Amino acid sequence: MIFLERIFQGHTETSTINYVQVLEYKDEMFSINVPFLLSVLLFSKLTACAPAPSGSASSSTVDASSSVVLPSSSVLSSSGVSTIEKPTQTSSASQSTATVPFAATDPNFPLWSPNSDANDPAIAPIRGGLGAPLLGPDNRPVDLQNPDLFAPPSTDHGSVANAKWPFAMSHNRLQTGGWARNQNDGQLPIATAMASVNMRLEAGAVRELHWHKTSEWAYVLKGSTQVSSVDSEGRNFVATVGPGDLWFFPPGIPHSLQATNDSAEGSEFLLIFDDGAFSEDSTFLLTDWLAHVPAEVIQKNFGVGQDAFSHIPAEELYIFPAPLPAPDSDAPKSPQGTVPDPFTFAFSKLNATMTPGGSVKIVDSRNFLVSKTIAAAEVTVMPGGIRELHWHPTMDEWSFFLEGEGRVTIFASQSNARTFNYQAGDIGYVPTAMGHYVENTGNSTLRFLEIFNTDRFQDISLNQWLALTPPELVKAHLGLDDATIAKLSKTKPIVVGSNTSN
């Protein structure tokens, strides 16, 4: 009977059955009584053409939207002789049942930490019954920092491009008064939308007057920095920013940076540029430009004599020592006024949104008006907590780890997933729309920046998505019970605590 039901289910509208289809099922259970089959086919054809009696439903009527009613259930004996049983109704709607095996629920914790004993034999490319001990030479400190690369979780699969770059591996340009090190797509090829520079200035030291073809967004790591600028309308701006604060200069806007002596060490900051191929060495520098302009042109431009610009450096200064900056209030007064939207933002004073697992504060063009190409979030995660499973719908994420230890699994679709470990000073990167989380795997607070090449911060929360989707649809996908459905959050959890009931 099974093979007949399969055939009839596919022909509820025409009631026409290809005899070849019937024969294809002949080996499924037993041999076929051909005369009986022909009678069944003839009967189905006649009942499809005959009108149903008025005022009642025919027992052989086909309702394509709900079910197929067979004229009878036929049981064939091994000799091919059939017996007739009562009609059987077969629903055309599929039941919500698993069609693939269930995913494993085994833990996949990192197998060690950066603080583990480097001589521990457990530090090996082995997880469960997979892998084998390393026999050749090894860089043990790198193994310690990257347990999920050396012994990946069983959930990792396929190929995802490298998404980690330690600033410690960037070439450092040392100058009198400070240094600078760069990260772009040469170091981290996956990072196509943004590049960065980590810069240090001793007290009084200057990052000389310059401009870029890209915008420049900055986060102050330590100390205080005075910034100055003039826009295309001749409006000027001078301000000092401290740890956790920001500045932003649009493309082509000239500016300078100078460390104050608020801290004896000067200042250090992180610069973000909205071009993955950006190189700090391609900056337009004041001294470099004038050193390559004929002297008579300079004299003519400024209306001065031969000696006025006779001490122009023969090459760029880049970073150099100088007297401490004057107070912000001593800045020249422009007849055109000051810029209407400040180039700095007191991010350190912005109130954070607190969650059971940590905190988040967001800055973009809605509160830092001038920042049209960079948005960011500063996130803290308590030990054992996670920045929830989420993705960013229209922009890549460039991240920088400020303190603590964390790990990120990037889901790149088509069963591709890879897990990375991060420590303070590391750069992470997640391309547009790829699912991920950030888990605190250490014993102290994890703090990091999420930075985006956009004017508005956006993310999609997996938890919220499921909570706002019809429950039966979620159940059909994931097999969740009502108690679990009830715990889904209709508002974004953002950072989830180590207690899974949060």
Automatic annotation (TrEMBL):
GO terms for biological process: oxalate metabolic process. The active site is at E450 (proton donor). It comes from the Eukaryota. Residues 78-98 are annotated as: Disordered. Residues 167-310, 344-486 form the Cupin type-1 domain. Binds 2 manganese ions per subunit. Mn(2+) 1 binds at H210, H212, E216, H255. Pfam families: Cupin_1. One of its GO terms (molecular function) is metal ion binding. The keyword Ribonucleoprotein does not apply. Coiled coil: none annotated. Keywords: Manganese, Metal-binding. Gene3D superfamilies: Jelly Rolls. InterPro entries: Bicupin_oxalate_deCO2ase/Oxase (IPR017774), Cupin_1 (IPR006045), GPI/OXD (IPR051610), RmlC-like_jellyroll (IPR014710), RmlC_Cupin_sf (IPR011051). Mn(2+) 2 binds at H390, H392, E397, H436. SMART domains: Cupin_1. The keyword Manganese applies. Its cofactor is Mn(2+). This is Cupin type-1 domain-containing protein. It comes from Marasmius oreades. The lineage of its organism: Eukaryota, Fungi, Dikarya, Basidiomycota, Agaricomycotina.
